[in-house]
């Protein structure tokens, strides 16, 4: 899913009515948001956090210092590890690590749903769909 | 909470520097673990540093740990910081870990290391500059600064990797490095061992894959999206509306061009090509063409500009060539000087002077500098042993001696190397030596030579460099080369030779000797100017008023950045010294990429025979200019760039803009009523124009060309979105809109014609004639985008500017010039003589021998080519190819390089 589409989806789920327009930059097609009252913002997680604040849903960024740091850690994980050019092996390790991390948790921060869950879900979507398809073919 | 760190893990730097923020808010224990210990239970791969929180949670991201410390101190998150940290994780880290790995684990140096991070460093520098704040996210130091500083510190603490031209980055980095928490973190992690302290950790890491897109050097760099404020847009509109009025009067042409007090006086030199060869594409892009672009740009800025070059004519190579061709050295020089001049004329190089070094002025000025050095005690004498032929009454250069090999007994060993056993020979060790010319037996004689006492001049040189380099536009490779010479310490250098063809040495006992070319070749610039005007000293002894730009390939840096400055400083005569030394990397040819085998590829005079216009050659060579890294000439790429950038982008836009004026508006520029969208476009074009200026002021020729192409891309989009060809058939409002779009587009075309002038002068003139651009607008380029073709202006006849290059045409050229074939994988070096001598022994051994071998390789290459063209017998071809490979092997040995391993099969 292109970053712009992902951000539009996020806008909707946040209940933001006015849709933003995004442009893409460079070979990795990094999303750029031209804001009305300031400089543009570049980067998926940067823009996503900005949208969350715009929607007055700051709790999605975590409530305590610890939660906030954890949310950002997983957002970084999303853009560096999940979006990296992963080999099959990398993907396997990544899913395994996440599985073991989530074993005793409901959400990435523990019990609170946050932006990290949304973006990680979007990011993993493509692997998991592929895996399912793969299985169908296998059967 | 507990922090796990590991010896030499770079992530510890920012974490330790940020830890101070949390002091007093939580207790912090620090444990050291091995680089391969898995601290985090759920992660398969080891990761440090890691912070284990009291809740049992783990933070395994360096940025997240730093962020947590800052959050504990009451800091609030903001967009700008998030953006910097995201950029750090996704862009900076991949580039940086590759650079650190190259440096620390693989022991690479210089541009091999810097190459991968330069773009990132430039990005930081530009951002700091643009927002005009001392710190990344505002007026005070914050999380983003600590994270980026910590990431960069291991590399940038070595000044060799902190490019001085990135001055904003420089001062930001220094400010942070002197702060106490940062200083302490640096000491803890690097332990005063510098970057090598990271070794125990980095060694255990997998080799990072090089950041994407770096391998393909011919591709454009990322275009950053511009952000525009209302103010910028308003300013662009105001400038546009002023139009032609804002152009200053044209400065009258002077002859001769002389410096003017109170003006910007730009003196431009291009490395002097050595006379005994036809220049190849490498010479052309490395020196004369790059300098030409800057000279033309400088004139467009109305700076008082003198651009000079000439042929370098003295030396053994000329003497040898003369013997080969049965001419006198003077005749050889006359012949080749004309060949050079013709080629540069064809390439449209706008020299104010194209002179030569074999003139009385050269003798006068060289001898004067020598006398001054001698009088001031900067010249040493020493004895060197050499073979002398009594009958010919001269010392023999190595290629003029033959004899029996002292190692294998081969009868016809040369003075430098045995063809049979391949061993290098010192000419005086040959048994039964013979003079190749008269066949008599030479004797060993010692010969007196003069040496320039560089160690004695070193301190002056360093002082001068200390004043000159900061804030100047010396290219990073030039800075690096000079720095490494100084680090190794300067040694006395022999400046005389036992030759006839050179500048005579004015000293008793040295009547039979001449100055070695590397002492007097750079003085050629002065003598060429002196032949142009008797007031040459106003350029060359006027460092206060003259800005000297010298263009060359990087192998010439020591002569221009070190030897000549030392001579000039020692002579104490207030010489103008180089302010901006612009050195290119090497241009390779087709598959000769990164191959070290030396040879020849496409020559300047052959380019003319291809039927491809000079401007297209200029464009492509400048597009792939080896700026910051080596690049490769490729026929296929040339076709692509011509057809995509010139034909489909630039040519298409300019032609459409002109055609709309002709077809829809009878050849008269229509009225323009600018909408907010148009105003935005104006501002975008202005911004890109500014970038073009910024880049060319810094002599980033290749990047500036891309800026120009970006404008025409904006233009094409603009036409595409607004569809004037449809609107012209619509309502009154639609027709007016079509007029505005056409008018604005044709004005962008006019602007492009001027920006294009330094790169493609003929095409530029053609566009300006088609558009009937008023004369002052053709010759001046301001930093604002003006309306130079106002409503009502009548344009001329518009016709297409570029031709498509076809596959079969390019394929036949490739065949003709032999790209992509094993025996012809030759790389072109953008170089000029003199070469830095391998070892300074006082004999002409090494360079001469290499030259001889290179000539033989060339000849043999031609034989092979001809045979192939005639479809000769396979075995015969194979035999000649074997000879060629052998010669190349010898050449590699002579150059002290490992013999080239043949690269796979021929490509078909």
Automatic annotation (TrEMBL), chain A:
UniProt organism field: Cebus imitator (Panamanian white-faced capuchin)
One term under GO cellular component: cytoplasm
Family matches, as Gene3D superfamilies: 1.20.1050.10, 3.40.30.90
Signal peptide: none
Domain GST C-terminal: 50-139
Domain of life where this protein originates: Eukaryota
InterPro entries reported for this sequence: EEF1E1, Glutathione-S-Trfase_C-like, Glutathione-S-Trfase_C_sf
PROSITE patterns associated with the record: GST_CTER (PS50405)
Record's protein name: GST C-terminal domain-containing protein
UniProt-listed GO biological process terms: positive regulation of DNA damage response, signal transduction by p53 class mediator
Transmembrane segments: none
TrEMBL record, chain B:
Source organism superkingdom: Eukaryota
Keyword hit for Cytoplasm: yes
Compartment(s) of residence: Cytoplasm, Cytosol; Nucleus, Nucleolus
Keywords tagged on the record: Aminoacyl-tRNA synthetase, ATP-binding, Cytoplasm, Ligase, Nucleotide-binding, Nucleus, Protein biosynthesis, RNA-binding, tRNA-binding
Pfam families: Anticodon_3, GST_C, GST_N_5, tRNA-synt_1g, WHEP-TRS
GO BP: any one term: rRNA transcription
Positions of the GST C-terminal domain: 74-198
PANTHER family listed in its UniProt record: METHIONINE--TRNA LIGASE (PTHR45765), METHIONINE--TRNA LIGASE, CYTOPLASMIC (PTHR45765:SF1)
Name assigned to this protein: Methionine--tRNA ligase, cytoplasmic
Organism for this UniProt entry: Cebus imitator (Panamanian white-faced capuchin)
């Amino acid at each position: 899913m292109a970053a712009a589409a992902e951000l539009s989806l996020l806008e909707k789920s946040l209940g933001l009515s006015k849709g933003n327009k995004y442009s893409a930059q460079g070979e990795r097609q990094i999303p750029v948001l031209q804001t009305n009252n300031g400089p543009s913002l570049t980067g998926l997680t940067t823009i996503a956090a900005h949208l969350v604040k715009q929607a007055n849903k700051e709790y999605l960024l975590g409530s305590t210092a610890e939660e906030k740091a954890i949310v950002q850690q997983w957002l970084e994980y999303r853009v560096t590890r999940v979006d990296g050019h992963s080999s099959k092996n990398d993907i396997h390790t990544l899913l395994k690590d996440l599985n073991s991390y989530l074993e005793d948790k409901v959400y990435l921060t523990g019990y609170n749903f946050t932006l990290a869950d949304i973006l990680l879900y979007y990011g993993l979507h493509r692997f998991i769909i592929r895996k399912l398809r793969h299985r169908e073919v296998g059967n | 909470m507990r922090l796990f760190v590991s010896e030499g893990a770079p992530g510890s730097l920012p974490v330790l520097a940020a830890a101070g923020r949390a002091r007093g808010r939580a207790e912090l224990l620090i444990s050291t673990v091995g680089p391969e210990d898995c601290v985090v239970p759920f992660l398969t791969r080891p990761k440090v540093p890691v912070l284990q929180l009291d809740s049992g949670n783990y933070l395994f991201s360096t940025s997240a740990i730093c962020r947590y410390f800052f959050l504990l101190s009451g800091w609030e998150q903001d967009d700008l910081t998030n953006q910097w940290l995201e950029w750090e994780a996704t862009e900076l880290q991949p580039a940086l870990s590759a650079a650190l790995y190259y440096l620390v684990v693989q022991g690479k140096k210089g541009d091999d290391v810097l190459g991968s991070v330069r773009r990132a460093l430039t990005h930081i520098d530009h951002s700091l500059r643009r927002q005009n704040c001392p710190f990344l996210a505002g007026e005070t130091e914050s999380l983003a600064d600590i994270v980026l500083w910590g990431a960069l510190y291991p590399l940038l603490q070595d000044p060799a990797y902190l490019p001085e031209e990135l001055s904003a980055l420089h001062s930001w980095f220094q400010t942070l490095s002197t702060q106490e928490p940062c200083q302490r973190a640096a000491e803890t992690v690097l332990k005063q061992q510098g970057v090598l302290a990271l070794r125990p950790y980095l060694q255990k890491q997998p080799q990072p894959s090089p950041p994407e897109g770096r391998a393909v050097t011919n591709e454009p760099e990322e275009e950053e999206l511009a952000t525009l404020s209302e103010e910028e847009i308003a300013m662009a509109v105001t400038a546009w509306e002023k139009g032609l009025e804002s152009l200053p009067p044209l400065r009258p042409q002077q002859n001769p061009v002389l410096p003017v007090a109170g003006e910007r006086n730009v003196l431009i030199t291009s490395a002097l090509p050595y006379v005994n060869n036809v220049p190849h594409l490498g010479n052309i892009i490395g020196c004369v063409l790059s300098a030409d672009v800057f000279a033309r740009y400088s004139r467009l800025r109305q700076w008082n500009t003198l651009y000079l070059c000439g042929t370098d004519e003295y030396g053994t190579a000329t003497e040898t060539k003369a013997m080969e061709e049965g001419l006198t050295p003077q005749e050889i020089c006359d012949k080749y000087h004309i060949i050079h001049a013709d080629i540069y004329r064809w390439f449209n190089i706008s020299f104010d002077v194209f002179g030569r070094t074999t003139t009385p002025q050269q003798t006068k000025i060289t001898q004067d500098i020598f006398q001054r050095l001698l009088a001031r005690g900067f010249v040493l004498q020493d004895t060197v042993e050499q073979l002398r032929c009594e009958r010919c009454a001269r010392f023999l250069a190595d290629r003029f001696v033959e004899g029996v090999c002292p190692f294998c007994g081969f009868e016809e060993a040369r003075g430098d190397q045995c063809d049979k056993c391949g061993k290098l020979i010192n000419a005086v060790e040959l048994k039964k030596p013979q003079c190749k010319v008269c066949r008599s037996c030479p004797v060993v004689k010692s010969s007196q030579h003069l040496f320039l006492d560089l160690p004695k001049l070193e301190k002056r040189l360093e002082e001068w460099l200390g004043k000159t380099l900061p804030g100047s536009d010396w290219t990073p490779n030039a800075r690096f080369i000079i720095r490494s010479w100084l680090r190794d310490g300067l040694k006395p250098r022999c400046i005389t030779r036992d030759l006839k063809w050179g500048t005579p040495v004015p000293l008793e006992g040295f009547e039979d000797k001449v100055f070695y070319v590397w002492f007097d070749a750079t003085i050629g610039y002065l003598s060429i100017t002196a032949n142009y005007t008797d007031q040459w000293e106003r350029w060359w002894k006027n460092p206060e008023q003259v800005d000297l730009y010298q263009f060359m390939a990087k192998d010439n840096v020591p002569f221009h950045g070190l030897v000549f400055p030392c001579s000039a400083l020692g002579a104490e005569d207030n010489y103008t010294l180089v302010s901006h030394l612009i050195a290119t990397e090497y241009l390779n040819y087709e598959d000769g990429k990164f191959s070290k085998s030396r040879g020849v590829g496409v020559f300047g005079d052959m380019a003319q025979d291809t039927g491809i216009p000079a401007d297209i050659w200029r464009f492509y060579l400048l597009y792939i200019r080896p700026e910051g890294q080596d690049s490769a000439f490729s026929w296929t790429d040339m076709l692509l760039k011509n057809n995509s950038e010139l034909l489909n982008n630039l040519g298409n836009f300019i032609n459409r803009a002109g055609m709309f004026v002709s077809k829809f508006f009878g050849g008269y520029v229509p009225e323009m009523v600018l909408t907010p969208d148009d105003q935005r476009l104006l501002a975008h074009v202005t911004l890109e124009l500014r970038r073009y200026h910024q880049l060319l002021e810094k002599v980033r020729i290749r990047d500036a060309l891309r800026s120009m192409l970006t404008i025409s891309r904006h233009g094409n989009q603009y036409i595409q979105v607004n569809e004037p060809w449809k609107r012209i058939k619509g309502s009154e409002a639609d027709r007016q809109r079509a007029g505005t779009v056409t008018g604005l587009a044709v004005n962008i075309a006019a602007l492009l014609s001027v920006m294009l002038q330094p790169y493609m002068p003929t095409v530029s003139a053609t566009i300006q004639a088609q558009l009937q651009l008023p004369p002052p607008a053709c010759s001046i380029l301001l930093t604002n985008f003006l309306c130079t073709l106002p409503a009502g202006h009548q344009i001329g006849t518009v016709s297409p500017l570029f031709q498509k290059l076809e596959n079969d045409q390019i394929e036949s050229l490739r065949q003709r010039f032999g790209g992509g074939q094993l025996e012809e994988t030759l790389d072109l070096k953008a170089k000029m003589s003199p070469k830095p001598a391998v070892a300074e022994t006082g004999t002409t051994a090494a360079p001469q021998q290499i030259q001889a071998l290179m000539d033989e390789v060339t000849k043999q290459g031609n034989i092979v080519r001809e045979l192939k063209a005639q479809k000769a017998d396979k075995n015969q071809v194979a035999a000649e190819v074997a000879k060629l490979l052998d010669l190349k092997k010898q050449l590699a040995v002579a150059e002290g390089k490992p013999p080239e391993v043949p690269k796979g099969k021929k490509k078909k």
